[in-house]
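W.,

You were right to be curious about this one. When I first looked at the sequence I had no strong expectations either way, so I just let the prediction run and decided to look at it fresh. Below is the sequence, 314 residues in total, followed by the output.
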Amino acid sequence: MRARATGIATATAAALAGAIAVGTIIAGPAAESGRPTAGSSSSGPARELTDAERSRVEQAEQRIISRCMAEAGFRYWVLTPLSPEELRAFTHPFVRNDVSWAREHGYGGLIQRKFFAQKKRDPNLAYRNRLSRAERARYLTALNGGPDTPVRAVRLPAGGSIRSAVGGCELEARGELYGDPETYFHADKIATNLAPLYVPKLLRDTRFTTALGAWSDCMRRTTGRVYADPDAIQTDLPKRTKGLSDAEAHAVEVDLAVAESTCAQKSALARTVKELDREYGDPVRGRYSEEIFTSARMRLAALTKANRTVPSSN
């Protein structure tokens, strides 16, 4: 078991750390955030936003950008946001355990293809492409500040840094929603990049390697294929669906997603990962509770402002 875990440690660590970073270590009806806010409850002053609430904030941001761009003399369309159900097709949990969603959507391939097809018809992209070179440059400067926008950088607890350059109407929208975009950017990037500090310990825990081995054995019995971890399915899926019609690809997705979710429950992998994330992650999150609290509090403040910006009928 230990030899098998060592062989997949790098890929598994990357998948698990990425899933924890966005709070989707598990995708299922009982899934919880991988980043609980230290010292607060769901009804407290700094809880995590739901998918629907995050979508509402993003739509408010787009509305503010649209208004700002109009003031700069340009059009900007606010597109219909994805529903919470559709958003699940774009999350990347470490393991899925919702058999019901998997049976209907597989891994969300049909939703993804529909979304990207619509993106190609994005009126904002078509509008920008119709502008002259000079007007296009002015449009981009109005939208995001252009090439002279100052770059923000945040050093991460596990090493490395994240850099971002946001200006123009995008910065104005974030300022209106979050109040202090720079403070939010710093706190949020720290809060969402803590997993590398403890995931290596989690991966070495025999409770994890045992559950992962049981999951892999279950998948072999169910599908006839060897998958060392859930991420290996995503590597294999494009090969399995290449050249198939949408309906045929969907059928393959459904079979694999249902198998993954069923095996996650039977092997206790979903439960084990959640429990170990708390055991190893809570002390780390405690050390960075100020950044976690600040980012969550500012997101809630943004939601309050978004509720005034986006009509309740949307």
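Here's what jumped out at me. Residues 1-8, 30-44 have pLDDT under 50 and may be disordered. And, maybe more interesting for your project: The two ends are 51 Å apart (CA to CA).

Coffee later to discuss?

I.
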